[in-house]
């Protein structure tokens, strides 16, 4: 009787084991189907999405295998699935001069809010102009220029990395990340010098300036020249700078023509912002646009727009950290660089820089008035004697031929004089100008 009971229990145990095996085989079969479906779908997904599919398949496999494994193996299965998910994420450890898991193309997306008017790459020549000063910082730190840690917290389209690499600076940190979130989390990378062209909208100029002076490191900020008249800058220059013992900055700007920036043409909102119709009513960016290719080091099939600031010019605000400032820096430049850098000028006072702003864009009414004057001039008719406010801008006079213009591509007039010219020409259109 006892033997029959044992035999019955043994048969039940064998049957239960077979059922468990069948269930395990069924789970594995379903898993194979899921994996095959995932692989088929992956052929139609983008490169980014295909990175996620293997992790999802591995995770699905771990879930199904729980039904066929003992409790002792469940923990190891979960760990395997977790490791598979981690392997599918973009690698965060990059070498010098590389972006953080993001391709440096003109169609890149930003994980932070942006203003279309801020989308413009810094020209290569602007970095060329500060190369001697970066080399001087490297020598003071007793490091090779290729090892100098350069930090640019504002990511645009990634060409800054290629520009700096061409100049021999390989250890550059410029990633597609939210600079302010990085600061809030305390994850600011270690750097030797801050080099950036910050956005001009909002309060970015003030925030990056405060970050720069607080770092007590050398900094080189490409900003509008009018920043030297801003309250936050003057307050630091006249009050806090003296208390902290910081040296006054020096200024470096182009000597022949203003910097022209590259705005990506792949972004519809940027195209709208930079269109001639919109640019005529936009301040400060209001210059003509030229469709060009990006710098050859920034290989891409997408074109960009060449954009020059219309009502102001951009110059470098420079602080060399512990290196002697002002007169000593200027003297070093003139002695060691001199005529080798004739395309740029370094001064101790921002007012000493050449004024190279692009001439302001005429309004449609001004262009119609000018065209009318040209027609009258070509027909030998007597034209209005334009007042001194608008003579240069409107191009009237005996030397002006049909279709000609007395405006050069750039003028050395101040912003106040240019505004006065526009005001004078508009008075003429309204019948308030003087005639003889």
From TrEMBL:
One GO process term, biological-process aspect: methylation
Annotated region described as Disordered, given as residue ranges: 57-103, 381-436
InterPro entries: DNA_methylase_N6_adenine_CS
Low complexity bias spans: 414-425
Example GO molecular function: methyltransferase activity
Domain of life: Eukaryota
Protein name (record): Uncharacterized protein
Species of origin: Chlamydomonas eustigma
């Amino acid at each position: 009787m006892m033997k029959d009971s044992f035999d019955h229990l043994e048969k039940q145990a064998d049957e239960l084991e077979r059922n468990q095996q069948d269930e395990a085989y069924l789970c594995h079969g379903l898993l194979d189907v899921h994996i095959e479906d995932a692989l088929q779908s992956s052929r139609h997904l983008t490169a980014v999405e295909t990175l996620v599919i293997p992790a999802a398949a591995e995770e699905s496999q771990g879930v199904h295998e729980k039904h066929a494994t003992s409790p002792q193996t469940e923990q190891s299965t979960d760990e395997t699935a977790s490791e598979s998910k981690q392997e599918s994420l973009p690698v965060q450890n990059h070498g010098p001069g590389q972006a953080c898991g993001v391709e440096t193309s003109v169609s890149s997306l930003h994980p932070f809010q942006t203003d279309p008017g801020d989308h413009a790459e810094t020209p290569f020549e602007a970095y060329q102009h500060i190369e001697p000063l970066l080399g001087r910082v490297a020598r003071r730190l007793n490091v090779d220029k290729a090892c100098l840690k350069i930090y640019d917290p504002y990511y645009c389209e990634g060409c800054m990395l290629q520009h700096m690499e061409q100049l021999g600076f390989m250890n550059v940190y410029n990633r597609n990340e939210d600079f302010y979130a990085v600061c809030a989390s305390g994850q600011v990378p270690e750097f030797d010098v801050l080099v950036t062209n910050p956005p001009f909208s909002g309060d970015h100029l003030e925030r990056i300036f405060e970050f720069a002076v607080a770092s007590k490191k050398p900094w080189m900020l490409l900003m509008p020249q009018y920043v030297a008249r801003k309250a936050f800058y003057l307050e630091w220059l006249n009050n806090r700078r003296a208390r902290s013992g910081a040296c006054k900055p020096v200024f470096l700007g182009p000597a022949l023509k203003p910097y022209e920036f590259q705005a990506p043409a792949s972004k519809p909102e940027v195209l709208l912002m930079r269109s001639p119709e919109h640019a005529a009513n936009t301040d400060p960016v209001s210059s003509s646009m030229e469709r060009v290719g990006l710098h050859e080091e920034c290989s891409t099939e997408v074109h960009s727009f060449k954009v020059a600031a219309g009502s102001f010019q951009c110059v470098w605000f420079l602080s060399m950290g512990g290196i002697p400032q002002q007169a000593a820096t200027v003297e070093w430049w003139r002695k060691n660089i001199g005529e080798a850098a004739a395309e740029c000028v370094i001064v101790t006072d921002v007012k000493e820089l050449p004024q190279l702003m692009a001439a302001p864009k005429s309004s449609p009414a001004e262009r119609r008035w000018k065209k009318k004057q040209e027609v009258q001039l070509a027909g030998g008719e007597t034209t209005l004697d334009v007042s001194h406010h608008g003579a240069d801008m409107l191009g009237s006079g005996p030397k002006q031929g049909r279709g000609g213009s007395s405006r050069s591509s750039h003028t050395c007039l101040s912003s106040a004089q240019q505004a006065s010219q526009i005001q004078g020409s508009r008075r003429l259109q309204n019948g308030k100008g003087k005639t003889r």
